[in-house]
Design brief:
Length: 363
């Protein structure tokens, strides 16, 4: 038995996604069939579409969503039919060394290739992003890649806690641990960067500089906590030097939220030489390198990366949803476009042009 689904399929790099009818296998004992209610378009999906990141094709992209449980495998304990859920692109099995430690959010199942296909097109296997594939009416998720959330929260807002909100807020709060009164620079004021801004504000940062080549992002940046806006395109000299001056010696924390190797260098060089901490959130293209003078680490400046904001999803996503419902974080203003599955290619065009912050597909 299979479930017939409608999904957006990536067949070839740089070609539009194609909406097709596919077959989804029945849940194995540890799997859950989810009816997707809302799915967000994240720049990470665009990396696969334009080939900056690669995976076997054809595939169903999409990793940021919310939905309702339709059916559970016999061994599933944490959710049942009717529950509202958010799928996790970083699983949390709860029992591996990573899940049990406070050192990382990267469960041992993160990135492990799938042992058998779950989606088929006329009998032929089709892959899926993050063992999810949420650009579809339905998805099969392993129980460890799913968390139950409160049922009074709107799907077309909380889908965003499955990636962008948690990644951005978490990068500031959980990973970098921004301190009250500190200075922060955020590079790239898109769907992720705006959430880093509101995370930095939540943490009590007093100087928050937003950097984006698109000046139209200034108003939104200020609404989400930026105290200054800087457009590198209007700067003649070295961007990092200008930002060192603007922050009177360098930011305590900087965040790269674009995925541009040259901007990673700017973000590192713009933080304080003695204690500045640069966090790389953007996903740079395969094979591209950044370079640093090792002497610049000696005094204490550091750089590290952050996946999914350092969050353990099954623990932290319900908390993000509560923060939204309590008005502690703003999601409403970030979801700028509501579209249907058939409009997904227009949705990615709006991301490319900078017209949208987050577009959400409503099913
Ligand atoms: P987005 O397209 O919404 O935003 C990118 C922003 O960067 C835009 O506002 C754009 O104008 C700006 N920009 C582009 N080039 C610039 C430059 N040279 N200098 C300054 N600004 C520039 O993208 P998003 O959805 O916010 O995703 C951002 C990055 O985060 C992507 O690389 C994505 O893959 C990555 N990401 C990482 C994680 C993680 O867990 N680490 C999770 C989700 C997304
Ligand atoms: Zn994402």
């Amino acid at each position: 038995v299979t479930t017939k689904i409608r999904a957006a399929v990536l067949h070839a790099i740089n070609e539009p996604l194609v909406i097709e009818e596919l077959e989804l296998d029945d849940p194995r004992p540890d799997e859950v069939l989810v009816q997707i209610k809302a799915a967000g378009l994240c720049h990470s999906d665009l990396h696969y579409i334009n080939g900056s990141l690669s995976r076997p094709l054809p595939t169903v992209p999409g990793h940021e969503a919310a939905g309702v449980v339709l059916a559970c495998g016999s061994a599933v304990k944490s959710v049942r039919p009717g529950d509202h859920v958010v799928p996790l692109f970083v699983p949390q099995c709860g029992s591996c060394e990573s899940c049990l430690s406070g050192r990382t959010n990267l469960c041992r199942y993160f990135g492990v290739p799938e042992s058998e296909p779950r989606i088929f097109r006329a009998g032929e296997p089709v892959g899926r992003s993050s063992t999810l594939g949420t650009f579809a009416t339905h998805a099969l998720a392993n129980e460890r890649s799913l968390v139950k959330v409160r049922s009074d929260a709107p799907f077309n807002r909380i889908f965003y806690c499955g990636c962008g909100v948690t990644t951005g807020v978490g990068a500031a709060v959980f990973d970098a641990k921004v301190q009250p009164g500190s200075s922060v620079i955020v590079f790239g004021i898109g769907g992720i960067g705006l959430n880093v801004l509101q995370g930095a504000r939540l943490a009590g940062a007093s100087t928050i500089v937003a950097v984006d080549t698109n000046s139209e992002r200034e108003a939104m940046a200020r609404k989400f906590g930026a105290t200054r806006f800087f457009n590198p395109a209007t700067c003649d000299g070295d961007v990092a030097a200008a930002l060192l001056a603007l922050t009177e010696g360098g930011a305590d924390y900087s965040f790269e939220c674009i995925g541009n190797t040259a901007v990673v260098e700017q973000a590192f060089n713009a933080c304080h030489p003695l204690w500045g901490r640069c966090t790389v959130v953007g996903v740079t293209p395969n094979g591209k390198m950044s370079s640093f003078n090792p002497q610049s680490f000696l005094m204490g400046r550091s750089i590290s990366g952050s996946i999914f904001g350092g969050a353990k999803g099954r623990r932290d996503i319900p908390r993000m949803v509560d923060w939204y419902m309590d008005g502690i974080i703003n999601i409403d203003d970030l979801v700028t476009h509501r579209i249907k599955l058939d409009q997904i290619n227009e949705g990615f065009d709006m991301m490319r042009s900078g017209e949208s912050i987050r577009a959400v597909i409503e099913f």
